[in-house]
Design a protein that fits this description.
- Chain A has three helices and eight strands; from the N terminus they run ββαβααβββββ.
- Chain A is α+β, with helices and mostly antiparallel strands.
- Chain A has helices at residues 34-39, 51-61, 63-69, and strands at 8-9, 26-31, 43-47, 70-71, 74-75, 79-83, 87-89, 101-106.
- Chain B starts with a strand and ends in a 5-residue tail after the last helix.
- The relative contact order of chain B is 0.12.
- Classes of the chains: A alpha+beta (111), B alpha+beta (623).
- The interface between A and B is medium-sized, with 30 and 40 residues.
- The complex binds iron/sulfur cluster (SF4).
- Iron/sulfur cluster binds next to loops of chain B.
């Protein structure tokens, strides 16, 4: 657990259901590729009722992630997000529901 | 054959010219960026001929894949058996090879594929491209068959064969080490392994650990009795605007250190694995599932903790996407890409990283395409589990069975001859409706993108001239964007598949590495600037769009001449009948795919079924 009371899950080993300390709506953020490398965690719980809010929250708590992948309420070029493993989203105004999961990933898929 | 023949000799010639200069074509116009000629070697007769390339042809087809298909059409290669002596195999360079532009040291290998019987263009990188272009030719075209296994040496203006009988059965690695000792470091070599010698239709051509991998160009070279090509030269081409080109190259290199390529630099392509798994588009156990329960065990995230990792790059590249992982056996390290990881891992149900790495090493050494090898073995595993194939030892998840299968492909023993056919021919041999789950389009095994959950890619796979392929169609980029609902793509979006295919055709012909594509705000606009600085032509984005479309159309023309019919633009029946078990929304009906294909064909200006209008066909090169 971090000093600020948030629970960080290192590579999915800890169980996120143990603690939910933040106020407001919470969503799960799953990180892949560079976002994961910069944040140092595979996933985390973040606050926000819109995508942009969640990005702000993430940038505050994970400065390296914020610097590499986020610009305020927006994603930087080269990164994208996906809602619930279904729909790709980038608009910071998109409204989220309690318990949503957001995937944060590097844009190019080719290999 | 059309073209201006400038000079012919048997096995050696001496047309001497040295130093950077603007070559001249037959009309005596200077050509910057090109030599304006190609070398045609007849391995049966020993006759090597310099053939001039008209400026118009170069401008219309650029180089790499584009110039390659133009040469194939001129040579009348579509009608030939790809493994017959008269078949044509071209190593094609490009106007950017040898320039200061990052990722430009690449070459294309173009022929008719023995696996698909359709056009095959595969690309590889590095020193062979640089040395090959310095021989003084924009392409090296091989026809005929040497009497015995040989090495073809092209030492600038001298062409000769040397016996390779002492190299029979040698792996790519050992062959390249041997040739380095024999000819010295100035020669760059492209080789085949034992799979190419055995004419396995998905054998590769290898250079310095990289492969022109898909579609069996290694078998075509093997059928010509050529174990290796060694090239050396000193002839450089001039660029039209060197200072401006240098400055643009610097800018491009700087951008290549930015966020758009960070994934490739820091993690490599293998980092796709967990993301694809999460989205349920990671082909597992011969496409029976879209996620693999043990993906984490073989992920680069895990390997980075448990193994030594080194990075490498092709010559003249500032990105360096190659990540090599050590084998626990102590037998060196292995280049790991997403495609070999998925094909030799989840596709065969393998969750043992050491096995995946060892299987990759064996494929590299033998010279076989990892995607087709994994796809064919995964298919065989399902056939065995369903009782369609009498091989009780062949089971998903059994690492030893995977390695035994790979060895059998190379040795031609046990089940090897069957596996060496590739999944389509193997399904025809097995019968019992197994073709409905053979993971192939036009005979080429699918790469690691489940088309049910990535339906723009499904369209890309179905219509690609090379068969199921992620390099000639980057349609997955659209799936990974807000432009479409990836599990419910409609025909109104088909033009986006056209756009990504055109971009790939341009990059494969210029040639620039596709991992650079993220740094361009407008690929066509910026490529026009690059090409203008190299060649001195006043190229526009509009012209390059037309060029890309022409190249794709020329590939289609080749396939039509080779016997293409609309029925082959499709996907395996399994993928059109069954949704992904993890995600019922990932369902692609035959009707929807048909509507996408129709819209794609119309967007290309072709008939609904995909035939070319007379005017388009008439404007293409003819033999
Ligand atoms: S990005 Fe990778 S594949 Fe492309 S040129 Fe560089 S090292 Fe080679």
């Amino acid at each position: 657990m971090r000093k600020d009371g948030r629970l960080e899950i290192k590579l999915g080993i800890e169980n996120r259901s143990k603690e939910r300390v933040s106020l407001g709506m919470q969503v799960t953020v799953e990180l892949f590729g560079i976002p994961r490398a910069r944040a140092g965690v595979a996933w985390t719980v973040a606050n926000g009722s819109t995508l942009g809010d969640v990005f702000l929250d993430l940038a505050k708590r994970f400065p390296d992630l914020g610097e590499a992948c986020l610009q305020g309420r927006f994603l930087k070029d080269g990164y994208t997000a996906n809602l619930r493993g279904e729909q790709f989203v980038t608009d910071p105004a998109i409204h989220l529901n309690e318990g949503d999961s957001i995937l944060l990933l590097s844009l190019d898929a080719g290999g | 054959m059309k073209g201006t023949q400038s000079c012919s000799c048997r096995w050696t010639r001496a047309a001497k010219f040295k130093g950077p200069r603007a070559e001249k074509n037959s009309l005596m116009h200077p050509i910057f960026g090109y030599h304006g000629r190609y070398l045609r070697v007849d391995l049966s007769t020993g006759l090597s001929t310099e053939i001039l390339l008209e400026t118009q042809l170069l401008r219309e087809y650029l180089g790499g894949s584009g110039l390659g298909v133009a040469l194939m059409l001129k040579e009348g290669a579509a009608a030939l058996n790809p493994l017959a002596p008269e078949a044509v195999l071209a190593f094609v360079f490009s106007p950017l090879v040898g320039s200061p532009l990052t990722t430009s040291a690449k070459f294309a290998v173009v022929s008719k594929s023995p696996l698909t019987e359709r056009l095959n263009d595969s690309l590889a990188s590095s020193g062979f491209a640089l040395a090959g272009k310095k021989t003084g030719y924009d392409a090296i075209v091989l026809v005929g068959r040497a009497e015995k296994l040989s090495i073809l040496l092209i030492d600038e203006h001298r062409v000769r064969l040397e016996s390779a009988e002492d190299l029979v059965g040698f792996s790519n690695r050992k062959t390249q080490e041997n040739l380095l000792r024999r000819f010295g470091p100035e020669f760059q070599t492209a080789t085949i392994g034992p799979a190419g010698e055995r004419l396995v239709p998905y054998a590769t051509i290898s250079h310095d650990g990289r492969h022109a991998g898909r579609g069996g160009s290694g078998a075509v070279l093997g059928s010509k009795n050529i174990k290796a090509i060694a090239v050396r030269g000193t002839r450089r081409v001039a660029w039209a605007s060197p200072p401006a080109l240098m400055s643009l190259a610097k800018k491009l290199s700087k951008k290549s250190f930015g966020p758009a390529t960070a994934k490739y630099r820091e993690l490599g392509t293998a980092s796709n694995l967990l993301m694809f798994n999460r989205l349920n588009v990671l082909p597992t156990r011969n496409f029976q599932q879209g996620s693999f329960e043990n993906a984490a065990a073989i992920s680069p995230e895990e390997l980075n903790v448990t193994r030594d990792r080194t990075r490498s790059s092709c010559a003249a590249c500032t990105i360096g996407c190659e990540h090599l992982y050590s084998l626990k056996s102590g037998d060196g390290s292995v280049r790991l890409e997403y495609e070999n990881l998925f094909a030799l891992g989840p596709l065969c149900g393998i969750d043992n990283a050491e096995i995946v790495l060892e299987a990759t090493r064996r494929c590299d050494d033998a010279g076989i395409d990892t995607i087709s090898a994994g796809g064919t073995i995964g298919f065989a595993m399902e056939c065995a589990e369903r009782g369609l194939l009498d091989a009780p030892w062949l089971r998903f998840g059994d690492g030893n069975a995977l390695l035994r299968s790979l060895d059998s492909i190379v040795s031609g023993k046990e089940i090897g001859p069957l596996l060496a056919m590739g999944s389509r021919r193997m399904a025809m041999e097995i019968g019992q409706d197994s073709i409905r789950f053979a993971p192939q389009v036009k005979g080429l095994e699918l790469p690691g993108y489940d088309p049910r959950g990535l339906q723009m890619m499904a369209l890309g796979f179905a219509v690609s001239t090379r068969g199921a392929d992620h390099n000639r169609s980057g349609a997955y980029e659209v799936d990974f964007s807000e432009a479409v609902d990836r599990r419910n793509v409609g025909p109104e979006s088909a033009h986006l598949a056209v756009e990504t295919e055109d971009k790939a055709a341009l990059m494969d012909s210029l040639i620039l590495c596709k991992f650079l594509r993220g740094i361009f705000a407008d690929l066509f606009e910026e490529s026009a600037e690059i090409l203008s600085l190299v060649t001195g032509w006043e190229v526009t984005a509009k012209e390059l769009r037309a060029t890309a479309q022409r190249i794709v159309t020329a590939k289609k023309r080749f396939n039509i001449l080779a016997g293409w019919t609309p029925s082959e633009d499709t996907l395996p029946l399994r993928m059109l009948q069954n949704a992904l078990p993890e995600d019922s929304e990932s369902h692609l009906s035959a009707e929807r795919l048909a509507s996408l294909i129709k819209a794609y064909n119309l967007a290309r200006g072709w008939s609904e079924e995909g035939w070319l209008p007379l005017g388009q066909a008439a404007s293409l090169p003819v033999g």
